[in-house]
Amino acid sequence: MSVLENWDSWKDFLANRLHHAQNEGMSNEVVSNLAYQIGGYLATQVEAKNPQEKVLADLWSVASPEEQQAIASTMVKLVQNNGTPQ
């Protein structure tokens, strides 16, 4: 099963990658910019596997670039305290 198929697994996956990036010294600004780029890719190139991803893709599709950046930053905040610190 893909991590994209279960919302909690997806959040845990993102959290683990976030912790790893932070431990490697990646700044919050860089993390946020990467989240924005990844969000754009997922919204346009990857089919949503669960209702939560569908909502995010729908929001992304109507959001301005500034709003998309806010969505990406909010996702980072959402997963920041999840997952296992690396």
Automatic annotation (TrEMBL):
Domain of life: Bacteria
Protein name: DUF3243 domain-containing protein
The species this protein was found in: Bacillus songklensis
